[in-house]
Amino acid sequence: MPDFERRLALSGHLARLEESRREPGSWTLYVDGTPQSHLDVEHPEWLGFEYVRRIGHAADLVAPSGEPITALHLGGGGLTLPRYLAATRPGSRQQVVELEADLVAFVREHLPLPRGEQIRVRTGDAREVLAKLPAGLDGVVDLAIVDIFAGARTPAHVTSTEFYGLIAPRLSPRGIVSVNVADGAGLAFARSQAATLAHVFAHVALAADSNMLKGRRFGNVVMYASAAPLPFDRMPRLLGSDPAPAKLVEGAEFRTFAAGGRVVTDATAVPSPPPARSIFLSR
Fold first, then answer.
1. What is the Cα–Cα distance from 143 to 178, expressed in whole angstroms?
2. Tally of CB atoms within 10 A around 233
3. Helix axes 188-200, 251-258, angle to 10 degrees
4. pLDDT class for 152, splitting at 50, 70, 90?
């Protein structure tokens, strides 16, 4: 099965698309050795990475099944979730912001986006582009996904109250922000992000597996935030039936989790912690 590689001009990272030898048509995007995205080109409605499935559940619950929505993706990678929404909610209006123009071109060259879908890809720093998005997106974004990494770490400037404050006015009355947070033992970074989101939004919850919640390993915590109550009556069942089951943490349990973290501002923001390189060894 073929692999494709490209050195990215902006960061100098090496991007690689690797096709599964067991499942042809199933691809993983690596950037600087870190797995960034996974997609099945014939079945875009199937989400392989566990944390992406947890974001996908928010996409499924934010509106009635099949209804088109307006989505904002901060961080593009392999464009997995834009493809997912195009398959599960045809006609959705989507904006994607990705820092690396070379990465967008590389992915689209080998794994083209579906034709006819309303997917607009913008290149640039997520925070800078977010501040300059058209006024027509004010108050209409149903789902904003924050999945921003430089290599294996989330940059500090997209973790603060000021950053999330730029997203809040873009959301529709039912709008949800879903944030992918990578952290390790102790979950100090995840707790700070929970506290920060709760400072900006009235309703916040998170999803993670039990070992992550106990701070036993490095991995992903997916957070959800909204000005409106989260429509998550079905979420515990969806999370529990995944191949890698997770727990929904909300209400008093979420407040206890967030109480262990400090609200992040631009003045205090730090990048997410680096993982051990051995976590991402692929071959």
1. 7
2. 8
3. 120
4. confident
Q: Which residues contact 115 (CB under 8 A, 6 or more apart)?
A: none
Question: Letter for the amino acid at 127?
Answer: R
pLDDT tens figures, 36-81: 999 999 999 999 999 999 999 999 999 999 999 999 999 999 999 9
Residue 163 three-state SS: helix
Q: What is the pLDDT of residue 283?
A: 37
DSSP codes of every residue in 44-85 = TT---SHHHHHHHHHHHHSSSTT---EEEEE--TT-HHHHHH
Give CA torsion, residues 200, 181, 170, 142, to 10 deg: -110
Using CA atoms, how far apart are residues 52 and 98, in angstroms rounded to an integer? 17
Percent residues over pLDDT 70 in the chain? 96
What number of residues does the chain have? 283
pLDDT of residue 281 exceeding 70, the answer is: no
Shortest CA distance to 189 belongs to which of 163, 162, 159, 167? 159
Instruction: Say what the pLDDT of residue 127 is.
Output: 97
CA distances 148 to 108, 117, 126, 200, 241, Å, are: 19, 23, 8, 19, 27
Surface-to-core class of residue 133, CB atoms within 10 Å of its CB (0-12 exposed, 13-18 middle, 19+ buried): middle
Interval 190-203: pLDDT, tens: 999 999 999 999 99
Distance CA 168, CA 139 (A): 8
Q: Which residue has the tokens 């996974």?
A: 38
Identify the CA nearest to 207 among candidates 188, 181, 228.
181
What type of residue sits at position 175? G
Residue 41, exposed/middle/buried by CB under 10 A (0-12, 13-18, 19+)? middle
